[in-house]
Amino acid sequence: MGSRLRSSLFMLLAVIVLFFASIIASHSQSVDYFYDDLNRLIRIDYGNIVIDYTYDDVGNRVTESMVYPPVTAASPGGGVYGSAQSVTLACTDPQGPGCGNIYYTTEGTIPTTSSPIYSSAILISSNTTLKFFARDLAGVKETVKSQAYTIDTVPPSGTVVINSGAETTASRDVTLTLTCADNVGCSQMRFSNDNITYSTPEAYGTTRAWTLTAGNGTKTVYAKFRDTVGNWSDAYSDTIVLNAIPPNPPVMIGETPYATLQEAYNAAADGAIIKTQAITFIENLILNRNIVVTLDGGYDSGFTSNVGGQTAIKGIITITAGGGTVTIWNFIIIE
């Protein structure tokens, strides 16, 4: 009778233990089983809880006990970073006697109690797999954990092309075609007309509307690209010639055309002769540079003759103090 009762109780207890074990296992990533020299189950490790078994002298299982191992976390966790990381390991043991040592490795091997003992932040400056575990004051160990770190300090590479590679443009408003390549991905870009002052970083895209600086001539646009971990590339650039002057420019200095009198004067060197066609300019002209210039009006469209012609300006010519010397030929001011 006593033997049957013990057998029944043992089976009931086994069912209860297996029931709770199945619940624990359903919330765990892996389960480890441990056996003694007689191939008897002595421990089941579910990661967040451990069940220990003991046996009497004749091999009967006599006790089951639940042990809660410590829990260790790494900060920052594994991932891709643009610079070396200082990683700290922190242990908690809320249901145990308290944390003992934390053991770790950085070369990918499984740590043991013979591995280095954590005492201060671990500097990770290259691609590393950090593995670690803690043991509490009663000797209970947690399951080994692993965090993989990728340290990427290589910036992206890229290209920028203005107006699909056109050599010239008649408009300051252009379209940039962009490419960016990086092992962890591109995230942002920014632009400049002088490689000094850049636009606000924005999300990376393959096209971008852009405005060139004013004035005819060769224009350069610069682009920089940023990867997802913060590395900015060097500047990539492309050039295009801006020629916004009409086919028959009304103003010339030498062989250089200009659209307005003011634009030509602003660009003139000391001693320059500014030639203008016999047309009417509707603009004000401010002469404020300490240079000697000549305004010679009345030319034909080829700038070959100004005999009998005059240039009319409907506006105000202002010469400021220190504005230099200006000689004006063949000009009339009209209201």
SSE blueprint:
Layout: H1 2-26, E1 32-35, E2 41-45, E3 50-55, E4 61-67, E5 71-75, E6 79-81, E7 85-92, E8 99-105, E9 122-124, E10 128-136, E11 145-151, E12 157-162, E13 168-169, E14 173-181, E15 186-192, E16 202-203, E17 207-211, E18 217-227, E19 236-242, E20 251-253, E21 256-258, H2 261-267, E22 273-277, E23 280-281, E24 285-287, E25 292-299, E26 311-313, E27 317-319, E28 325-329, E29 331-333
Parallel strand pairs: 6-11, 13-19, 22-25, 23-26, 24-27, 25-28, 26-29
Antiparallel strand pairs: 1-2, 2-3, 3-4, 5-7, 7-9, 8-10, 10-11, 12-14, 14-17, 15-16, 15-18, 18-19, 20-21, 20-22
Give an account of the 3D structure.
The protein has four domains: 66 residues, no CATH class; 81 residues, Sandwich (Immunoglobulin-like); 86 residues, Immunoglobulin-like, CATH 2.60.40; 83 residues, no CATH class. The chain contains two helices and 29 strands. By secondary structure, the protein is mainly beta.
At the fourth CATH level, what is the homologous superfamily of the largest domain? Answer: Immunoglobulins
The secondary-structure class comes to: mainly beta
How many helix segments? 2
Q: What proportion of the residues is helical, as a percent range?
A: under 10%
Biggest sheet strand line-up: 13-19-18-15-16
Bulk shape: rod-shaped
Task: Outline the biggest β-sheet.
Answer: 5 strands, mixed
Write down the domain tally. Answer: 4
Would you identify the regions where 5 or more consecutive residues have pLDDT less than 50? 12-28
* Cα-based radius of gyration, to the nearest Å: 41 Å
Percent of residues in beta strands: over 45%
Output the CATH class name of the largest domain.
Mainly Beta
Any idea what the CATH architecture of the largest domain is?
Answer: Sandwich
Kindly report the CATH topology of the largest domain: Immunoglobulin-like
Mean pLDDT, as a whole number?
Answer: 89
Ends apart, CA distance between termini: 130 Å
The number of strands is 29
